[in-house]
Amino acid sequence: MDIKQIQELIKFVSRSGVNEVSLEQENFKITIKTNQNPVYVNAAVPSASTQVVMAPPAPVAAPAQAAPAAAATAPATEDTSKYITIKSPMIGTFYRSASPEKPSFVNVGDEIGTGKVVCIIEAMKLFNEIESEVSGRIVKILVDNASPVEYDQPLFLVEPM
């Protein structure tokens, strides 16, 4: 890992709101700590023994629960297949408006055309206007305002016209 990659990692950690990150590779270990208030995330990592114990009861319970779950998710999959997804062209922070006191660029139900600004993504202190490449009607906004987004992450669902 070179110095530029370390600097980019530091910037990403400071923007993400995480208090501490540790990264370990074969001959390299780095820990980055920020002065921000800590953000606690509880995650359970299943062990191999837990999976083995849980595996036998799952087939008994799965048929009763799997059928309604499959029926509920199948229409949702079909519904989204007719929509076009506007995806993030970069990593950054998603904003629905130019500033907090200004109205959102688009809302659910709005009709958009090619070239219409739909959001702003802040990356490295630069505010990038994201323009629509499709015409249609906004059906769903998939990201909360002021939240981090990844490259190619879906942002909006658009019903084509």
Provide a short characterization of the protein structure:
This protein is an alpha+beta fold and 161 residues long. 29% of the residues lie in helices and 32% in strands.
How would you describe this structure to a colleague?
The protein has 161 residues and is α+β, with helices and mostly antiparallel strands. Among the domains are: 3-33, no CATH class; 84-160, OB fold (Dihydrolipoamide Acetyltransferase, E2P). The chain is 29% helix and 32% strand. The chain has a 4-stranded antiparallel sheet with strand order 3-10-8-5, with no helix packed on it. A 4-stranded antiparallel sheet has the order 7-6-4-9, with no helix packed on it. It has a two-stranded antiparallel ribbon with strand order 1-2. The longest helix is centred in the middle third of the chain and has 25 residues, at 57-81. It is elongated. It starts with a helix and ends with a strand. 12% of the residues are buried. The model is unreliable at 39-43, 47-64 and 66-78 (pLDDT under 50).
Descriptive terms for the model:
161 residues, alpha+beta, OB fold (Dihydrolipoamide Acetyltransferase, E2P), 4-stranded antiparallel sheet, 3 helices, elongated
